[in-house]
Amino acid sequence: MEKKLTQHPINLIKVVLFGPESSGKTTLSRHLARHYNTVWAPEFAREYLQNKWNNERKTCEKEDLLPIATGQMELENSLAKKADKILICDTDLLETKVYSEEFYGGFVDDKLNEAANKNEYDLYLLTYIDTPWEEDDLRDRPDERLEMFNAFENALKKHNKNYILLKGDKETRLKTATKAIDKILLEKKDLYSFSDSLQDLDMHFLHQNSGDFSTNFEY
Hints:
The chain is α/β, with parallel strands linked by helices. Helix 6 links the parallel strand 4 and strand 5 (163-166). The longest helix has 22 residues, at 194-215. It has one domain (2-208): Rossmann fold, CATH 3.40.50.300. The protein has helices at 25-35, 44-56, 65-80, 93-103, 110-118, 145-158, 170-187, 194-215; strands at residues 13-18, 39-41, 86-89, 123-127, 163-166. Strands 2-3-1-4-5 form a 5-stranded parallel β-sheet, sandwiched between helices.
């Protein structure tokens, strides 16, 4: 598998927001990261495609999908090192694969397909389309929201992913999501924590320099 599309090994709970456009993924990503005092990995495609639109007045093309996937994994792997036990991912490569299939007649780059199938996450939060459609430069197919939602759910089922469906207002979604994540937190042990690693580093520094500090107080 393409090395740039591979997850770096780290003992974290990885949660993916998964679903069609304008279904509340980014909002919930922020809320979950705040709730668990951790970081979240935004959708690389948003910035990439917005820049393309601003500079070329072009939307996503087939050739953009692999660079988008590579950028997403670089972002995820980088932010994983700064997470505290949980990493919230606004998207993953399986989502990119679904878009590729739906927008380009079933086409999926072989490297993207392999990585999307092999990268692993603890929980997928499938966001339903009971949120208002918010138009912008990049979003399209507002009349095909149900068809896109079905494509995303079918992908989760096809690949045997652990997922729950999120419906309702922001508070309801957050409550449902945290209940599922808390259950995983109880089951997984020795999770990586960036905050703990910083504290360990500080303690190591103090221990290493304790002798130097004592000499400063000689009379």
